[in-house]
Amino acid sequence: MIEFNDVTYSYRTGNHNALDHISLNFRQGEWTSVIGHNGSGKSTLVKILMGVLEGYEGEIKVDGEVMTEENLPDIRKRFAIVFQNPDNQFVGATVEDDVAFGLENNGVGRDEMVNRVEEALRSVNMLEYRTHEPSRLSGGQKQRVAIAGALAMQPDLLILDEATSMLDPQGRREVLEILREIHREKLTTLIYITHDLAEIGVSDHAVVMKDGRVINEGTVEEIYQDTDALVSSRLVLPFTISLADRLLDGCYMSYDELVERL
Ligand SMILES: Nc1ncnc2c1ncn2[C@@H]1O[C@H](COP(=O)(O)OP(=O)(O)OP(=O)(O)O)[C@@H](O)[C@H]1O
Ligand SMILES: [Mg+2]
């Protein structure tokens, strides 16, 4: 669905390439996780895709068509993004107003708007909070409302840029579980950015970034097996992986599997 071909970008004030010859595919219907330490270029990647940053070298194709200044506004409408900070994403006085906001801006009619808001809130299990004030929700609930706002736009691609990183473990679980369900049911194409390796378990494909480059990509098992690449990227290995790496050959995705092998 999306193809980065040899994309390089450097910020005007930067003294190095924030993205350094990136070539990557994001496939339709897949959950792709992008993992990397602070400053590895993950947000720059999606900012370029969203048209926030201009003046990159290389080429980006969406459904086979090269992204240009002319088609960018239309392409951009097909993508929705949820950011890191749950407190910076609200504009509405109530949960349902907030979810309706983007639809209103896009001129979606009243009846359809009501239906879409309801469906989006139901899919994140927040329908019963529709009349609540967003500021009074927990962090996890806020991010679920932000996801509902994105889903209501019926995007072809949903991007989450460290959307769980400011949440407590409970909030993280809630958000991940909701995303898992949405992905399973609707086969939504997802780009899930994180620096937490423990969160990539559900992805179909994972990409490891370091210093603006892609240093590894593959299935989750393949990523976990290349522990050297992960350690060199300064990522914290999940407990089962790091223990297995020290004790045994192979890859153990769950405690049960590891216990069995031990
Ligand atoms: N507005 C900016 N001006 C100059 N340099 C920037 C700017 N934003 C990011 N950079 C630099 O570009 C590189 C990539 O940053 P980016 O924000 O894409 O990383 P990231 O992987 O999203 O990091 P994090 O995990 O902290 O969100 C870093 O070296 C960063 O310092
Ligand atoms: Mg970032």
Automatic annotation (TrEMBL):
<protein>
    <submittedName>
        <fullName>Cobalt transporter ATP-binding subunit</fullName>
    </submittedName>
</protein>
<dbReference type="InterPro" id="IPR050095">
    <property type="entry name" value="ECF_ABC_transporter_ATP-bd"/>
</dbReference>
<keyword id="KW-0067">ATP-binding</keyword>
<keyword id="KW-0472">Membrane</keyword>
<dbReference type="InterPro" id="IPR017871">
    <property type="entry name" value="ABC_transporter-like_CS"/>
</dbReference>
<dbReference type="Pfam" id="PF00005">
    <property type="entry name" value="ABC_tran"/>
</dbReference>
<dbReference type="InterPro" id="IPR027417">
    <property type="entry name" value="P-loop_NTPase"/>
</dbReference>
<keyword id="KW-1278">Translocase</keyword>
<dbReference type="InterPro" id="IPR030947">
    <property type="entry name" value="EcfA_1"/>
</dbReference>
<keyword id="KW-0547">Nucleotide-binding</keyword>
<dbReference type="InterPro" id="IPR003593">
    <property type="entry name" value="AAA+_ATPase"/>
</dbReference>
<dbReference type="GO" id="GO:0043190">
    <property type="term" value="C:ATP-binding cassette (ABC) transporter complex"/>
</dbReference>
<dbReference type="GO" id="GO:0016887">
    <property type="term" value="F:ATP hydrolysis activity"/>
</dbReference>
<keyword id="KW-1003">Cell membrane</keyword>
<keyword id="KW-0813">Transport</keyword>
<dbReference type="InterPro" id="IPR015856">
    <property type="entry name" value="ABC_transpr_CbiO/EcfA_su"/>
</dbReference>
<dbReference type="GO" id="GO:0042626">
    <property type="term" value="F:ATPase-coupled transmembrane transporter activity"/>
</dbReference>
<feature type="domain" description="ABC transporter">
    <location>
        <begin position="2"/>
        <end position="236"/>
    </location>
</feature>
<dbReference type="GO" id="GO:0015087">
    <property type="term" value="F:cobalt ion transmembrane transporter activity"/>
</dbReference>
<dbReference type="GO" id="GO:0005524">
    <property type="term" value="F:ATP binding"/>
</dbReference>
<comment type="similarity">
    <text>Belongs to the ABC transporter superfamily.</text>
</comment>
<dbReference type="InterPro" id="IPR003439">
    <property type="entry name" value="ABC_transporter-like_ATP-bd"/>
</dbReference>
